[in-house]
Design goal:
Blueprint (H helix, E strand, L loop, with lengths): L1 H30 L4 E7 L1 E17 L2 E5 L4 E3 L9 E2 L4 E6 L8 H47 L5 H42 L14 E4 L4 E6 L5 E3 L4 E6 L4 E8 L11 E5 L7 E16 L5 E11 L3 H4 L7 E18 L4 E3 L2 E8 L2 E12 L3 E6 L6 E4 L9 E7 L2
Parallel strand pairs: 1-21
Antiparallel strand pairs: 1-20, 2-11, 2-15, 3-10, 4-6, 4-9, 5-8, 6-7, 8-10, 11-14, 12-13, 12-15, 13-14, 15-19, 16-17, 17-18, 18-19, 18-21
Helix pairs in contact: 2-3
Organism: Hydrogenophaga electricum
Keywords: Membrane, Transmembrane, Transmembrane helix
Pfam family, one: YknX_C
């Protein structure tokens, strides 16, 4: 009985100790610091590029504008935008322009002009006949005088006068013939003016005849139609534009402050659309003048146009077109073998920068310096080594030595 009495208190004490230990473990597990889930990345060595990203558009290197060489009536075009043409193909046809409508009074005046012109022609013919008769008489007199002078019946001076009279008759005949020709031309002009005033049952005179075909100077595609129907056009009026879509370039406008950093020959990558491979190119010209452009936020900016030559086959460019939008990535400088850390890992610390390095499950703050940086990464100068793991997007709440649980960024 004595032994049984002594065992019960010892057993109760052991159970109490165990319960207290369990409570302590539960409290420690409940309040101990839990590792923070963070995204991580590895410090690597690679190519560092300083780039300028802007948008622009494609344009044809050469475009040809077909214009009307004279006032005429344009026949309805058969070409559409995008149609392929070869050098020498007919791209537009012009017909003589229609005459203006003439009132009855003007028509009567024109009819009287025709009558006057016919009378002048008749008078010219009569003058020619009179001059011919005078020439015939002068010729007979000259021949007779020559024979008489040969036989010494008249003086030599009389013979010379007859010869000169014949020459005068020849010139008078030529003058009369010229006057007759002038009268006939004037009559034809008067009849033509009257013919334009008279109604015609067959439509506009000369519409089917005298067509003027305009031909393409180059092989390419129709990129714009200025006239898409039959209509009167004036001299110099634009009709259509032709260009080779296989020979294009890109025009990128950048801030005037960035333009001095861009050198001729700089590499450029152009994105033309979703799931499309980028086009490679290089800068061939930086314009020496700037222009004002209002941004999407309503801010006026000074911009400079950069011309980029495309290093792509013509067959690939045929899928694109004039004025297509592109996103450009212009390489300003590049360095191979640079030590790179993601820009998302950098945290401002006073006047400098720091990163959090993952070591033994904890984030350790470390000061770093870099030579240059871009939107994606920084070129590290001091503070990191290749292969170390850094915390991305650490935020202001992260402290040195804080337990973390890293997960590789996708």
């Amino acid at each position: 009985m004595t032994q049984k009495t002594q065992w019960k208190p010892a057993r109760r004490w052991g159970v109490g100790v165990a319960a207290l230990a369990a409570v302590v473990v539960l409290v420690w597990a409940a309040y101990r610091p839990r590792p923070m889930d963070v995204e991580t990345a590895t410090v690597t060595e690679g190519r560092f590029e300083q780039v300028i990203e802007e948008d622009g558009q494609l344009r044809l290197q050469h475009r040809y504008l077909i214009t009307a060489p004279t006032a005429a009536q344009l026949q309805r075009p058969t070409l559409k935008v995008g149609d392929a043409v070869q050098a020498g193909d007919v791209v537009a046809v012009l017909a003589p322009a229609a005459s203006q409508l003439i009132d009855p009074r003007t028509r009567s005046v024109l009819q009287q002009r025709v009558g006057s012109a016919d009378a002048a022609v008749a008078a010219g013919r009569a003058n020619v006949q009179r001059a011919q008769a005078a020439l015939a008489q002068a010729t007979i007199d000259a021949e007779r005088s020559a024979k008489l002078a040969q036989d010494n019946f008249i003086a030599a001076s009389a013979r010379d006068q007859s010869r000169l009279a014949r020459e005068a008759a020849v010139q008078a005949l030529k003058a009369a013939q010229a006057e007759q020709n002038a009268a006939e031309h004037a009559a034809s002009e008067a009849r033509a003016a009257l013919g334009r005033a008279e109604p015609s049952g067959g439509g506009i005179p000369g519409r089917e005849a005298g067509l003027w075909s305009l031909k393409s100077p180059v092989s390419g595609r129709v990129i714009k139609l200025h006239k898409d129907s039959s209509e009167p056009v004036q001299a110099g009026a634009p009709l259509l534009e032709i260009g080779d879509t296989g020979a294009m370039e890109a025009v990128i406008d950048v801030l005037s402050g960035d333009a001095p950093r861009i050198a001729t020959g700089a590499a450029v990558q152009l994105a033309t659309g979703r799931n499309q491979p980028p086009l490679a190119g290089q800068v061939v010209r930086v314009d020496p003048v700037a222009f004002t452009k209002t941004s999407a936020l309503g801010i006026e900016e000074q911009r400079v146009n950069i011309t980029v030559a495309l290093n792509a086959p013509a067959a690939e460019l045929q899928k694109l077109g004039d004025g297509f939008r592109v996103d450009a990535r212009i390489t300003v400088s590049a360095q191979d073998g640079a030590l790179l850390v993601p820009s998302a890992a950098l945290v401002r610390q006073g006047e400098g920068w720091q990163v959090f390095v993952l070591q033994a499950g904890k984030a350790r703050a470390r000061a770093v310096s870099f030579r240059d940086r871009n939107a994606d990464s920084a070129w590290v100068k001091e503070g990191l080594k290749a292969g170390e793991t850094v915390v991305l997007y650490p935020g202001s709440g992260m402290k040195d030595g804080q337990p973390v649980k890293g997960k590789r960024a996708a």
